[in-house]
Amino acid sequence: MKRIAAVSVIACALAVACRQCPDEMGFIRDMYEKVLYEDYSFLEEHCSEGLLADLSDSYDYDGGGYAVWKFRSGAQDGPSDEHALISIEDEGNGWYRYTAIDMGITFTKRIKISHEGGRFMIENVADFHKIIAPLPSGLDVDNLQDCTVPAVFTSDDFLWIGGRLRMTVYSMDLYDAVDISQLQVGDTLMYSGEPMAIETIEENNGKLVINGDIDNGGCCLAGFEGGTYVARGWDDHATYSKLGAAEPALADDFVIIDCGEFPTDPADTIRTGQRLYLETLRDSRREFFTLNTIVTIENGMITSINRRWIP
Question: CATH number of the domain at 22-128, please?
Fold first, then answer.
């Protein structure tokens, strides 16, 4: 009987503890889905003094108030009336990250929750800034097998003794379409190998114009194949990231498909005498670079080099 009583006491204690265990995620869900953050009495009851002061200081309209837009996307208008919570993630140490839709705009916020006198208290709310980088190329420059890569080299980089090509390998900058759909002001886009802080995002004819486009120090993202976006640079060319140096072997029967000097010139297909062809090119045509050159590698050996004419 004593053992049963002890177990009963423990079970009751656990039940009380579970009832008292704070449900921060449920609190955050109610706050957003029920738009409680627009209720000043809710804010005054559940926000720390420091956060209330910040919300008040950020309110720049007459009459005083709180900057309630800090709990949502912050946009003044959007493409629809959709308002929904997508997910909540526990980051630890009282910090949570919630992703939601506000007027059809997807955004993410970080929020810190504590407990005071049996109440949930919001200590901080801040934008969640992401770093969006191009998708991994999946290539090992030290062991290129079956792939097609943009590359940079000159006619002097062909090592005819040993039959190899010394080149620098690149990959086209492609971004996951899901990441781009969630892009927001404050995020960082890795563009052409450099970080670009996103200050403005505009849609123009199906393309995303970042920071006023390339003319203003920004860039443009356009839909591409397989659920990706490609970064566009000058003259609408794609941008590329350097992967590193490589020195793959030349197949005995590798082919050079080379454009003419002018756009109307037919391409030359060189199946024999490749060395003579390359060594007799005019100086202005001795360089091959990412925008116009693709190298195809099969079983670790270069089978074709294709240079196209570009404006």
Answer: 3.10.450.50
